[in-house]
Amino acid sequence: MKSATILIVGAGFSGSVVASELASAGRRVHIIDKRSHVAGNAYDEYDEYGVLVHRYGPHIFHTNAERIFEYLSRFTEWLPYEHRVRGVVDGVPYPFPINRVTLNQLYGLDLDEVGAAEFFERVREPREPVITSEDVVLNSVGRDLYEKFFLNYTRKQWGLDPSELKAGVAARIPVRTNTDDRYFTDTFQAMPLHGYTKMFEAMLDHPNITVELGVDFANVRDRAGYGHVVYTGPIDAYFDYCYGPLPYRSLRFEHEHLPAIEQYQEVGTVNYPNDHAYTRITEFKHLTGQQHAGTSIVREYPQAEGDPYYPVPRAENEALFKRYEELAKREANVTFVGRLAQYRYYNMDQVVGAALAAAKRLTG
Ligand SMILES: Cc1cc2nc3c(=O)[nH]c(=O)nc-3n(C[C@H](O)[C@H](O)[C@H](O)COP(=O)(O)OP(=O)(O)OC[C@H]3O[C@@H](n4cnc5c(N)ncnc54)[C@H](O)[C@@H]3O)c2cc1C
User: Fold this and answer.
1) pLDDT tens digit string along 137-176?
2) DSSP bridge pairs for 87
3) Residues with a CB atom less than 6 Å from ligand 1
4) One domain for residues 320 and 227
């Protein structure tokens, strides 16, 4: 006989939000994760030197959705934080995304806002239609800026040329004629005051929720009896890769502690589009506001193999996903939600929204 307990696979944002919502609605929930911790890719912890670091790369919370911000505020207080990024070109760090200061510094100009707009108009290479990421960037900033800031970064990040990637990838990065050097311009930009992991622990702290870590779904899927399964792992893995694996881009994170250096770089993240095998360096103390005599940084090395991080946005991959999605629709009593199950480039706020919607469907 089926038990009333719902099994949730994955204790990242999608699984934990669904767990919390179902538990609040009076349902019993058992949540598993194959990793040894909750919080999925947003997991943070103090390293052995006492600095709070993000194990799976920098996670900066930003959203325009007040509803999502308020929802998460049930589980954490916040530290206001606006992320800033520099892109190093020929050894010089410039504001990134490209803004007026970037142009003035790079080309020795003194443009005002109108001048910057005219500059872009002069150098852009109009493309019609705009289909690829190359089209997006050339169409807005022209070839020189494309080659300096985007081309090699994209090649490193995705292992593909921008001309091989859908427009959406580059369209995420704005170009500005003002001097706003914040990476995001969302209404709500903040970090969980005591870190993401603490926020997840609060989310899962409910008498109706049991958590089991270090357990792979593959080893329990035959364990009979769950009334329903909410699956947030990779959709192709769920179906035993029957149509072949969905391509993902992975990363290797190289964490380093610098004992006697209070600040390593002037902003949270510095991009290296044209140098090194890594794409960027993030210094965590900028993000967390932590005071410490030393500092901890992470370098990100993109790679094809490893944990699935970024769905690769190409038309043929989406077509393959659609085939898996058809199978998922026919899978009775299983809900597929999250970045891996929906093969979608979700930010944290978006995945919270998707999980809240899924929970609402389940609770009626
Ligand atoms: C390097 C990097 C930086 C990012 N930076 C930002 C940022 O700055 N801002 C932002 O908004 N978003 C950012 N994101 C996106 C953010 O990580 C995701 O939106 C979020 O983690 C998605 O949550 P999820 O629950 O869908 O997936 P995940 O966090 O991946 O959680 C899925 C969980 O399922 C578990 N799982 C998978 N398969 C199984 C199985 N078979 N059995 C048991 N457990 C399983 C996994 O171990 C994992 O813990 C970033 C992502 C990456 C990779």
Assistant:
1) 999 999 999 999 999 999 999 999 999 998 988 877 788 9
2) 94, 271
3) 9-15, 32-35, 40-42, 56-60, 216-218, 232-233, 251, 309, 338-340, 346-349, 351
4) yes
